[in-house]
Amino acid sequence: MNALWLIPTEVSDTPAPVSVIRLVLPQAEHISEEIAEAFAQRARAEAGGGLKPILLDITGVASISRGARAVLSRSRSASAIAVVGTSAVDRVLANFLLGGEPPPCPTRYFGDEDTAVAWLLERADDR
Amino acid sequence: MTADGGDPRLAMLVDGIVRLSRGDLSSRMTPSPVRDDVDAVITGVNLLAEELELVYRQFEKRVENRTAMLHQAHLDMKRMAMTDALTGLSNRVDLVEKIEQSLSGQADGDPPPALLLLDLDSFKNVNDRFGHDAGDDVLREVAERLRGVVRATDTVARLGGDEFAILVTQSTMEIALGVANRTLEVLAKSIDVDEFSVHPRASIGLRLATPEHTAESLLYEADTAMYAAKNEGRSIIKTFEPVMLYDRQLRTLMASELRDAIGTDQLCVHYQPIVNLCDGSVNGVEVLVRWNHPTRGMIPPDSFIPLAEEIGAISEVDRWVMATALQQYAIWRAALLVPENFQVRVNISAIELRQLDMVDFVRGLLKRMSVPPPSLVIEITESALVSGGEVETYSLLSLKQLGVCIEIDDFGTGYSSISYLRNLPVDMVKVDRSILREPATGSWQPDFVAAVFQLIRAAGLGAVFEGIETQEQADFLRSLGEISGQGFYFSRPLPEPAVTELLRSGNALPLGPAVQS
Asked: In this model, does residue B247 exceed pLDDT 70?
């Protein structure tokens, strides 16, 4: 796991910039509960006790375990989660990821990052 | 993709689905790095398989848990079904099972099991006097003591009420008698109930099993032996003997015949005159029931009244006797000149005294027959009076209030304490025949008789002596004062026509030789 995968993105052209927490899962990895928990901890640290939109990039991951999926459903730092992938496999994985336990916040799968960020920001503006 | 256009991943997918469908839910397929639609299907099937496997495992776990719970519930229910709730001892079902195991598990040469049946003597009195909670305490304590007299391999059971059983496995007569004796020993110590002490004595029947026994026959024979023990007295151990079966069958037959007798006028009453000793005048009669059995002839009350009490028919007998006697008295009053102080004495059992409607019955009968209440004397044995509970006391007081006289019967046979004479709601005392006769020699002791009479007088009660057989006795009693009496010296119990004739004649008793003939 590399700390660089956790890259906070500043959105500059908005009057009150909303920071999106960007989590990129390692490609070709089997995502276990431990790995997922490490990401969740970082997200919590980043959110600083508040709620932030999260962009979760699962492109190319080998698999996501049930335990890892449960970590997502327990998330308490996300105001919304956009899951991003590119292949059909990513889409299937994402939908299993989102389809289990009722999520704690709005979630959605996107085939590209831009649309995902736009959706997240749009939701942030609505608030 | 293969050269012929077929995708090997599809074949792998088919194989994977076949494995899953066979039940191998751990089977997974590896998607290719291409991550196209086929890989997506493979990934989806993998994920579905994972879900299915998990659900299946959870389901199996749940079935396992439920099965364990069911098994535990079954064990609990079995234990409850096999246990006496009050004492925690085995119950009858469990005992029968243990007897069967013991009989069938007996290898050649093994000593047989023995069965002891115990019935607490007079336990009903504990419930009546101290209440059912106290009775339950006594039963629990008895159970605890019984546990202490057996080996770990033996079984103590409560069969219901105050009846217990002990199954002694691999026993001999000596071992079984040892258990029986230890049982009597532990029950001889009193049990404290509130501020009173209860002595839980028991009658014990014992039967050593033979190879022919079944659980049922062993229980029946031990029960028969217990029955014989109970008939013999308190704290008795009886070992089964075949003749006991005959006695029991005879008793069962007699019980059924007695029930029929009450309905078919086989019962009749005789009347024994009560005489004023001063002048020999007849001032009353004691009504005595007889059973005119179609084949065995006239049966005296001693032979069937205890049986009637046992089979719950005594109330019917008592009421029939009272109704018959009062009806007869009404006829005498109408047809003859019976003296004003004439009294009809009827015996009532302690059981009848416990019937809540007994007083109403007597009141109704007196009214229907137009008999003044003081003309009726109800005779109750000393033991019934002394051991009576609240209902008995209520009945006695109500009868007394009604104007009926209460007489202690068989006085001098029951209790050594005489202070109760002053406390009981009674008017008269009938002195038992044994007082007139010194038991060992058959001779009699006038001083003792005089002292008894003085005692009764001092308590403010009237006295009737029974069992007067000689002129000497009659003369002596007459010298003491105003006394009534009955006995063969005056007259034996007479059938109705004879006593009617006696009353019509107005003769004094005893009759002279000329009159007697």
From this structure: yes
